[in-house]
Amino acid sequence: MDKVVASAREAVADIGDGVTLAVGGFGLCGVPITLIDAILETGARDLTTISNNCGVDDQALGVLLYAGRIRKTISSFVGGNKELARLYLSGQLEVELTPQGSLAERLRAGGVGIPAFYTPTGVGTMVADGGIPVRYDADGTVVATSKPKEVREFGGQQFVLETALTADFGLVRAAVGDRHGNLFFHESAANFNPLAGMAGRITIAEVEQLVEPGEIRPEHVHLPGVYVDRVVEVGTEGKGIEKRTTRPRTSAGAPAAAGEEATEVN
């Protein structure tokens, strides 16, 4: 039952060329950065990634993108990465766009064994009708587009059929994990992490704090250990901030009055 491995490099050692990775995180929040860096070191390439966004420029999944290791990404937001746009428009990267809520539900469905589901999201748009560019050639000509999806009516409303997503590996980052693989995610880091963990055939968790079984209260377990195969403790170093916002504040801990200086981080 002890699922702890000694290092991130050991945890990802069997991730080879051509595999599919479901990766938790949103922007830079809750991203398994240590595991991603370890995959970069292994040299694995031709990867397919499933994630809300494919890194923020050269951070998070962006390190694999900049190194030319990702062949295809399935994402809901790709606007924050200039290199992704360059690779996509020059025919070096396939991009499958899916609405954010649908992406979350596709991962959850894959994790619980539901092959497909109907949703109203995307009805009457190119999400349902097809035609979204998936791949360009080197000259910028569209050579592959998304296919039309089945649309059915239930109770007088139309719904589009979305298929589940599964991955060879799920990669997640948790605030706390125990030796049995039970995980607790801190606040908004519980974004796509539980879903990516559910969808992976083999799920690897990097945790900031490793505890013994029973130390995480049952009601605080966000992803049960039944979904998790490997756990590696990484500490809190290396966490990035996507956007830094400042406002006036007079002194630490005191509320800021209008026009006074303070600092806060998002």
What does this structure look like?
The chain is built from seven helices and 15 strands. It is an alpha/beta fold and 266 residues long. The protein has two domains: 1-115 and 164-235, Glutaconate Coenzyme A-transferase (3-Layer(aba) Sandwich), CATH 3.40.1080.10; 241-266, no CATH class. Strands 1, 2, 3, 4, 10, 11, 12 and 13 form an eight-stranded mixed beta sheet that branches. The chain has a three-stranded antiparallel beta sheet with strand order 5-9-8. The protein has a two-stranded antiparallel ribbon with strand order 6-7. A hairpin with a 5-residue loop joins strand 6 and strand 7. Helix 5 (100-112) packs across helix 7 (193-199). The radius of gyration is 20 Å and the shape is globular. The chain starts with 7 loop residues before the first helix and ends with a strand. Residues 257-266 have low confidence and may be disordered.
